[in-house]
Amino acid sequence: MRHAAKVRTVAAGAALLGLVLSGCSALQIRTAERNSGPVRVAVQESAGESPTTAPPEDGIPDGMKEVSVNLGAECPVDVSLAMADGWSQSSSTAEFHSFSRGTSVADNDVVLISCTQAYDESPQSVVEAKKKFSFSKKGSSVVSERTGGLAAGYYWSFHGVLGPSEIFAIDQKPTLMYGARIGYRANGRLVEIGVEMRALESDTAAAKEFEKMLPTVTIDEAEVPAPRFK
C-alpha cells in the first residue's frame, strides 16, 4: 500500500511539473484518488486577468500623429514630432517650417522647425552659445532643461517662460516655450537645428500638450531626450 501511494504521488507531481513547464499558469489542477487505480488529474480552465493593453510601439501619444519635415539640400536632416489635429502649416521654406493654431494672430500657438548654418567649433559650442542668449530678458526663466550628446551632435532641450520683452513673446505677454536646440553635423557641415513650441503662459491646455509633444522630437530618427517637467 505504501508503495502504491508513492507511485500515485510521483505521478501527480510529474503531471503538475509538465503543466508548469508548458506555461499553463491559468489552469486549475485537481487530483482525485480512489480506492483502486492511479491518481486522476483533472485540468479545468480558470478565468485569468484581462490582458494589459500594450502601449503604441511608435511612441506617438493618443490623439496625435507624426509630422515629418526635411530641412533641404543645405541641411539634409529629417525632423519629426507628434502633433494633434488643428495645427496648420502657415509658412515654409526648405530650411524653415512654421505651424500655427488659433483664431487670432495675437494669441496663436506656434511651432517652429528651422535649420541654419553654424560657424562654431563644435556641436556643443553651438548649443552653449544659444543657451547664453536665450531666456535672457527680464521676466524670462528656464524651468527645466537637459543637455547631452547625440550620434552626430549635441542637444539642449528645455521648458521655460519668455518675459514680455522677449522678441519671441506672443503679443508682448509672458509666453511658454518648450523646445530643443541641436548642434549637428550633416554632410560635413555644422548646422543648428531648432524646434520650438510657444503659447501664452495662461494656456494650461497647450502646456500639457507641449509636454507630450517634446519627448517625441527626433533628428534623423534619433530621439532627442526631453527634460523632466516640473
Automatic annotation (TrEMBL):
<feature type="region of interest" description="Disordered">
    <location>
        <begin position="42"/>
        <end position="62"/>
    </location>
</feature>
<keyword id="KW-0732">Signal</keyword>
<protein>
    <recommendedName>
        <fullName>Lipoprotein</fullName>
    </recommendedName>
</protein>
<feature type="signal peptide">
    <location>
        <begin position="1"/>
        <end position="26"/>
    </location>
</feature>
